[in-house]
């Protein structure tokens, strides 16, 4: 469900509190000792999402949306069906909707209840995405939170916050940056950052 905002303000976003990380590790250890979790299987899953998926799948989707009008139209009409045809659906990303940034509206994604995130497109969620601070604050004061990421939006551009759930996840299609005209999909993919697909950053020229 989206939330629209224009002017908000608050303090800096933070990473997960250290005690949360400790609780996660303790829970993992307990489950492993009880035989409910196979560490090797868990490591294999993490390896896939960290090193074989990562955000490059989502970046290619964005690049194609910029370069191929028919693909963008298909995403708009039915994101889930379009991604399914491309083989880009899966665990933690069964139902996806794209939201497009424009000069009038900037979109940002959060999961206020936990950390729902489109793993098949973006890989494993960053620590800050799962933090209590980000989840609570970006809904109340998105402009201030985005500024802390280094993203200061024009006053006339509204901010819309999308709350992911277990049933639906969102992928932001950032505005195509200046200087990328004439590039093909492969080159455009390098301009798409992970944060730009969450909404806490912009697409940008590769270093």
In short:
The protein has helices at 18-33, 39-53, 56-67, 69-77, 79-85, 119-122, 127-130, 132-140, 142-148, 185-189, 194-198; strands at residues 2-5, 96-100, 105-110, 158-163, 169-173.
Tell me what the structure shows.
- This protein has 207 residues and is α/β, with parallel strands linked by helices.
- It has a single domain (2-16, 55-198), classed as Alpha-Beta Complex (Nitrile Hydratase, Chain A).
- The protein contains eleven helices and five strands.
- It has helices at residues 18-33, 39-53, 56-67, 69-77, 79-85, 119-122, 127-130, 132-140, 142-148, 185-189, 194-198; strands at residues 2-5, 96-100, 105-110, 158-163, 169-173.
- A three-stranded mixed sheet has the order 1-4-3, with helices on one face. It has a two-stranded parallel sheet with strand order 2-5.
- The longest helix is centred in the N-terminal third of the chain and has 16 residues, at 18-33.
- It is globular.
- Residues 6-18 have low confidence and may be disordered.
